[in-house]
Amino acid sequence: MRSFSAFYMNDLPCGVGVTFPDHDTHLYAIVHDLILTMVADKTLTEGEVKGQLHGFIRQYKTEGGTEALGVLIAANIGWLAHHECIPNDDFNGLLYIYGDRT
Fold this sequence. Notes:
The protein has helices at about 25-40, 45-60, 65-80; strands at about 5-10, 15-20, 95. The protein has about 100 residues and is of the alpha+beta class. Helix 2 packs antiparallel against helix 3 (about 65-80).
């Protein structure tokens, strides 16, 4: 994998896009594990996850985009995408880029 990204309402000023380059593939494993843990928690609701996500986005934008917040944002977006709570379009969801660099 060359990189992966997470987008939420990325076409709006209130939205966010987070990209993890190829040297951060260990972060992919962390995000993946967080998504699986969140999906396994049957008590989570769309409202709770979106509320957390909006808080993380506000923090991400005011604190300059820390790696830890990027991971939390990506995991929340992954949960929302898994449960089809966000549109399947160019501005929402997870994007994985594969292949060799040329």
